[in-house]
TrEMBL record:
Organism whose genome encodes this protein: Hoeflea phototrophica (strain DSM 17068 / NCIMB 14078 / DFL-43)
Lineage, highest ranks first: Bacteria, Pseudomonadati, Pseudomonadota, Alphaproteobacteria, Hyphomicrobiales
MF terms (GO), sorted A to Z: 4 iron, 4 sulfur cluster binding; metal ion binding
Alphabetical UniProt keywords: 4Fe-4S, Electron transport, Iron, Iron-sulfur, Metal-binding, Repeat, Transport
A GO biological process held by the record: lactate metabolic process
Protein name: Iron-sulfur cluster-binding protein
Domain 4Fe-4S ferredoxin-type: 305-335
NCBIfam families listed in its UniProt record: LutB/LldF family L-lactate oxidation iron-sulfur protein
Amino acid sequence: MELAAKHFKASATKALADAQLQKALGNVEKGFIGKRKKAADALPEFEALRDNARDIKNHVLAHLDLYLEEYEAKVTASGGHVHWAETAEDARRIVLEICQNANAKTVTKGKSMITEEIALNDHLSANGIEPVETDLGEYIIQLRGEHPSHIIAPAVHLNKEQVEDDFRRVHTHLKADRDLSEPVSLLSEAREVLRKRYFAADVGITGANFLIAETGTSVIVTNEGNGDLTQTLGKVHVVVASIEKIVPTLEDTAQILRVLARSATGQDMSVYTTFSTGPKREEDPDGPGEYHVVLLDNGRSSMLGTEYQDMLRCIRCGACMNHCPVYHAVGGHAYGSVYPGPMGAVLTPSLNGIDETGQLPNASTFCGRCESVCPMRIPLPKMMRHWREREFERNLTPSTARYGLKFWAFFAKRPKLYRLAASFGMPLLSMFGGTSRRFKSLPLAGGWTRYRDLPAPEGRTFLQAWAQREALKQEPLNQGAGQ
């Protein structure tokens, strides 16, 4: 997809004025936060599992080369093929060649953020192969020509009335009196259409939540069963995954699965957790004749050993954006990148460079909710601060912000001058605040006061208030000493 992260501010302003979007975004806060809390509270060892999950991924990242080699060997031993892709272009080329070798005209796809990252659908379509998304949310946005607005709920920005309109526009077989007013009827209609596409497709493409080095297994986690049909009905199954999805053992995978669904959707486990190891064997009743794994780097190895390495622990649960007040306000499309929310504000600059994405790390209140709910304990605010520092060092921040910070730093580095300026400035600002104690407009603060009032200072600085408090605490002692 075309990267539009540099236009985040303009996109966010547009999103705030979109009444339909604002109505749909209300479902994010209502639908995810309470469910996650309930699921986590019901599991006494949840916090310990988070620690274990973090430690497992840290161990993998410290020995990633060894586990990748082990995984390749196990896939090959099971009859599968591993393809190494350094860039998105490499991955697109490899997948296209596999599809062309299978003489595929249509491919079915399970939900996969990594194929969104490499813009696989557009590449296949441009080369005469029709990709059909089988996840309901992905199918809906494919009909609309859009990209996911959430990594686990791609169509969360839509209301069911919009989905019904799209189905009636595209599904020409629909009769006018067919009731599509409820989610169940919409699901039934999509299932009826997609069922035929599964049997027509020669190749099935999925992502992977985990790749198990111990067994050469790929794991997908879904709630619809579409992933199972995608990878078993076609002649060829292609897994596209990034290199950090490696997990050492089946037991390690089971531990991380216990925090994944609870963090993502508030479920104990997702409805379908599917393990695939190699192509169909003689004794198997079904399955693909060929099994291919495309392992994508696309900038991830360059994150190893840096202050952004912790981001590679991400298991794409979406908990950070489910709890992010900025995401709640503007939705996913405003970020202008494949990965929205706090995790996108860290990962997107890592993959695409801070020059194009500098506004994203600034799309945060630094409230810390993202880190507090992350099942892998990723310090997202800290890494966003690192990106802000990089942006400032390279003079990418607006000149007003840079000069404003330099002006403040001049005083902050000189405590006596800072206190003197504050002791004059706070009472002066307090006088202009009026009886409402708020500023409706203020020079050099229009970015704030254009949308909300700015509280006026009380008249004293913090140090002055603290000194007065300490003096009052000492007053009874002084009175006693004089008796």
